[in-house]
Amino acid sequence: MKVAVGQFVVGPVWQENAATCVSLMAQAAGKGADLLVLPEAVLARSDTDPDMSVKSAQTLDGGYVQQLRAESRKNEMTTVLTLHVPTRDGRAANTLLAIRGGEIVANYRKVHLYDAFSVQESRLVDAGASQAPLIKVAGMNVGLMTCYDLRFPDMALSLALSGAEVLVLPAAWLKGPHKEAHWATLLAARALDTTCYMVASGECGNKNIGQSRIIDPLGVTVAAAAEVPDLIFAEINTERVAAVRQMLPVLLNRRFAPPQML
């Protein structure tokens, strides 16, 4: 499978952000990508208004998603990203979408809300109640996670035990002391915990680190971006997953069951 990861600076005008997503989709598909992962909360963002993304929330039949679905109809590439979808009284759900062939083939409401490092995502965002189902892309089983989910190894493990070979993660990882190190360490750790590929997109800009990564099942980074807008690619395959799992059978050697997921 050829995977692509795009990162960009999400701005306050949703039409411009949608156009950027459409452009990245066209570029990735043009280079033969089967899977494209874009950042978290790509609808709208402002450095001066932390609530902009929720205030700009759109329904799944709104203009933003319709533009992405229209671009998606041009090929069979799967695109994964998140945006905010309104729920009730000025609140929203941070919703991951997997779009292929013009259709939403899976969606997932972020379970672990970012109530940490002096941020309280739950103030305006409603948490999801269940783990996302696996999706099949180019013959590989793909598990879906969002940003702060990365800090919860039981979720990644649950996806791997359900059959995931690839874990994808749209994110908007905030800058701060040690945060770049946390990002790199946790991505490698989740790959090693699960012997899955990790395909992670990080929004870049004044407040977020960017640093998208594609990491193989032995925790080795095979493609990476820096802090500026970029589109990176890598070839991944199920044979590599099988070889690593034969060499490092951590999923089989477990002595304790993971906690029950929601």
How many helices? The count is 7
Q: What's the end-to-end separation, in Å?
A: 30 Å
The low-confidence runs, each spanning 5 or more residues with pLDDT under 50, are none
Share of residues in strands: 25-35%
Strand order of the largest sheet: 5-4-3-2-1-14
Biggest beta sheet attributes: 6 strands, mixed
- Which bin fits the share of residues in helices? 25-40%
Instruction: From the alpha carbons, calculate the radius of gyration and give it in angstroms.
Output: 17 Å
Average pLDDT over all residues? 96
Number of strands: 14
The general outline is: globular
Order of helices and strands: EHEHHEEEEEEEHEHEEEEHH
Q: Which class of secondary structure composition applies to the elements?
A: alpha/beta
InterPro entries: C-N_Hydrolase, C-N_Hydrolase_sf, De_GSH_amidase, UPF0012_CS
Protein name: Hydrolase
Family: Belongs to the carbon-nitrogen hydrolase superfamily. NIT1/NIT2 family.
Pfam family, one: CN_hydrolase
